[in-house]
Specification:
519 residues; Rossmann fold; GMP Synthetase, Chain A, domain 3; 3 domains; eight-stranded mixed sheet; 21 strands; 30% helix
Length: 519
Amino acid sequence: MQSQKNKDKILIVDFGSQVTKLIARRIRELGVYSEIITPKKINKLRDYNDIKGIIFSGGPSTVTATKFETVPKEIFKKKIPILGICYGLQLIAKILGGKIKPSKKRREFGRAYLFKKKNSPLTNKYLEIRKAVWMSHEDAVVKLPKNFKTVASTKDSKLTIIENTQDKIYGVQFHPEVTHTDNGKQIFKNFLFLICKIRKKWNIPSQQNKLIDEIKNKVKNDKVICALSGGVDSSVVALLVNKAIKKNLICIMVDTGLMRKNEFKYTYRLFKNKYKLNVKLIDASKIFLKRLKNISNPEKKRKIIGNLFIKVFEKESKKNKKIKFLAQGTLYPDIIESKSSSGSKTSKIKSHHNVGGLPKKMNLQLIEPLKEFFKDEVRILGKSLGLVDSINYKHPFPGPGLGIRIIGDITQERIKILQEADNIYIKELIKKKLYKRIWQAYAALLPIKTVGVMGDLRTYENICLLRAVVSEDGMTADYFNFPKFFLDNISNKIINNVKGINRVVYDITSKPPSTIELE
């Protein structure tokens, strides 16, 4: 989303934190347009007229090193309010004459508690009661720059919130953007409306026409292939592109053989009959399974699946010379985990088939209208486009499908076993009215077998792992705390109805340290 038409914006300088995009999300939730740029870009920035505030993100660098990522000192003379988070706070202190030291005694990881030292516009309505905040740092500010004061401390970090009210410069050592911090949104609210005095002008539905215009201007009279899987992301993209170019859209549903049970038929009929889209089905299950044979490495699986998808689409594009674009539902979190979208030093976590899994050379140009959106924002957009609830509120499903939920080798037999188990699990969640309370749930097959007893016979069969998480954005997540009766019931149902499974386990790991998917 470009900013030319968006006045009064907040600029976020990304120093490589894995959760920088959450800062942008929190700002947007409050109705304010935000834009993420790299330190290199802010060095070249000349026009500050529309910038009402600047936020420095956290990051893996240290200002105690000989070389570190920084910003021009002149920025502090622009009289634009500035908020530094974690590394951002340390950078502010370093540039303005404070002192920072690495220290094992001052390092803080995880939860810490704030102690109020003085009132501040940044902590208005925030420090009335003790607040738990999320820390992730080894360095600490040990001496404040001139004209700065301490607003709050923790047990192990004296200068946790600092301020220079005269120049409107603030810093917090913790991460208010993550859900682990109690009511961190209040920090952003105070910064935006009390300090920056910016007005609410941004909302998701208002972006619909802007996205449609961007697609029109890019595609013009050419044709577009849309990779339609039936998930909310690709469905919203299909409806957006259809509104933009109508007859020049061809939606392609590729049956990889790795979809959920009966999901393909339902999706095809819905988009064909209800939305009147030009949808073509391609059964490529044999070639996908052939290429994935004996492949157990998750990154190789993703690369193979990503490459095969593109080959299928490029083969279709050769049938019509006017097809020059491929539209797909890439989201913010996909880009963050595959690579840094802003060019920062963000660590790569895994390849997504529609980002890091794509081949380097492609004959089709990409259209990714949702690449700056989070999942919940896409659902708001989907609702404004009239997408049915059964798809708009469907749990996220990975592009590689069951290929990354079958840990180890993928075979037709293991796919069928998992499809049956997953189908029972999801249906039971819906039946017990738990589905909408969960961000994402799925069943997976582990690469080991265990001994069991059924009747009086010994069995040696698969372990089925169940996962269900609650989350706001997919960037952080916690496991869903099922009542015991549900786990008892679902375990019995799967074992009694799916031949090939004799043990069911439930994953109770949060993200981080784990990811939501196993691979």
